[in-house]
């Protein structure tokens, strides 16, 4: 605190007061996302382009951060019971969440699923060759059902099941090849990018740097109980020519607000622990912080401090980005339009076109 002038010290006092004030109201009035079953992504795995008559499993078409999390948290527990059937006309697309189990991928068409098969022989092959249950991450049941556990990105690819069977004993064998395009996907990396401007000390003053550190510390403590973090991306001091006025120094701050991907946060119930939900709460706390700072300053009879928040400059932009190696492509993946899908799918599709 000794690094601050008396003017900047008064601002720090105001900031700390606002922080204490908001601490007491942290959990009031910030439930922004209404509960709802929403749509469902299987485990998360979503079956797309499934043949008629199979389970009605659809990937969510998210339109906003709020809608993005309005799906049932029972989705992952239900993924193991989902069953996807194939088609002899086209490869069925299946989306499996990274490090999760896949749904049950059947080596039958919808028509054969309801038929009795005599002496069936199932043989699965994938990007690495023929599959067997000896691989700890892959299970092939006696009835030809393929199940992945803890799906990895390198497991993405074209999978083919060769089926040999009879419908009537004594008749010649019938043969089918059923293809699946299986993609690994991950959730986007969600965060808020926060920009805000402050009237500053002269740009050469060390007070600006000290104030930036203090502001970062206050914002970080404000959202700490939500398992969220605030990071300073950049702080730039500029000389701004005012309308019908002279030059003044302003600091342009850019922060990122992220939440840790923790599921054992005891401070929030069930769906409230989701990263997007906690980010909404963090956003509300930060917005209220700056609003309260303005209110206190307007009520104060003290002169303006040297460094103070410029009202109306706060902006918080929702950002979701895919991790390296993953991308969003609504044209290629219309049933999972905002999923971060493993980009190796481009190579998979190229091989498939060549094969046909």
Automatic annotation (TrEMBL):
Family designation: Belongs to the zona pellucida-binding protein Sp38 family.
Domain Zona-pellucida-binding protein 1/2 C-terminal: residue ranges: 322-344
Alphabetically ordered keywords of this record: Cytoplasmic vesicle, Glycoprotein, Membrane, Secreted, Transmembrane, Transmembrane helix
GO cellular component: acrosomal vesicle; extracellular region; zona pellucida receptor complex
Subcellular location(s) per record: Cytoplasmic vesicle, Secretory vesicle, Acrosome; Secreted
One Gene Ontology biological process: acrosome assembly
Key word Kinase present: no
Highest taxon listed in the record's lineage: Eukaryota
Main location: cytoplasm
Protein name: Zona pellucida binding protein
InterPro entries: Sp38-bd (IPR010857), ZPBP1/2_C (IPR048805), ZPBP1/2_N (IPR048806)
Regions that span the bilayer: 6-22
Domain Zona-pellucida-binding protein 1/2 N-terminal: 91-186
Keyword Secreted: yes
């Amino acid at each position: 605190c000794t690094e601050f002038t008396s003017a900047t010290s008064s601002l720090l006092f105001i900031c700390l007061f606002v922080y204490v004030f908001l601490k007491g109201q942290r959990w009031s009035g910030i439930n922004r996302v209404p509960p709802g079953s929403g749509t469902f992504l299987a485990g998360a795995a979503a079956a797309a382009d499934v043949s008629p008559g199979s389970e009605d499993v659809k990937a969510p078409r998210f339109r906003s951060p709020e809608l993005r999390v309005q799906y049932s948290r029972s989705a992952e527990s239900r993924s193991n019971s989902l069953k996807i059937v194939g088609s002899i006309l086209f490869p069925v697309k299946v989306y499996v969440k990274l490090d999760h189990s896949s749904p049950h991928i059947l080596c039958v068409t919808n028509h054969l699923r309801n038929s009795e098969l005599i002496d069936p022989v199932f043989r699965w092959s994938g990007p690495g060759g023929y599959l067997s249950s000896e691989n700890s991450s892959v299970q092939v049941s006696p009835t030809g059902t393929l199940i992945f556990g803890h799906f990895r990105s390198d497991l993405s690819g074209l999978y083919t099941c060769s089926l040999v069977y009879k419908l009537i004993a004594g008749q010649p064998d019938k043969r089918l090849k059923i293809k699946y395009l299986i993609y690994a996907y991950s959730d986007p990396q969600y965060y808020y990018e926060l920009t805000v401007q402050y009237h500053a000390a002269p740009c050469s003053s060390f007070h600006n740097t000290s104030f930036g550190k203090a502001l970062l510390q206050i914002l970080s403590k404000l959202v700490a109980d939500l398992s969220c973090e605030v990071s300073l991306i950049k702080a730039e001091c500029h000389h701004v020519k005012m309308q019908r006025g002279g030059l003044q120094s302003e600091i342009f701050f850019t922060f990122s607000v992220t939440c840790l991907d923790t599921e054992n946060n005891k401070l929030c119930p069930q769906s409230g622990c989701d990263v997007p939900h906690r980010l909404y709460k963090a956003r509300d706390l930060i917005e209220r912080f700056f609003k309260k700072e303005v209110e206190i300053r307007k009520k104060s009879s003290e002169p303006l401090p040297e460094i103070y928040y410029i009202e109306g400059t706060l902006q918080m932009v929702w950002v979701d980005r895919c991790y390296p190696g993953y991308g969003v492509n609504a044209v290629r993946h219309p049933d999972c339009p905002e999923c971060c899908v493993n980009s190796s799918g481009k190579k998979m599709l190229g091989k498939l076109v060549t094969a046909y």
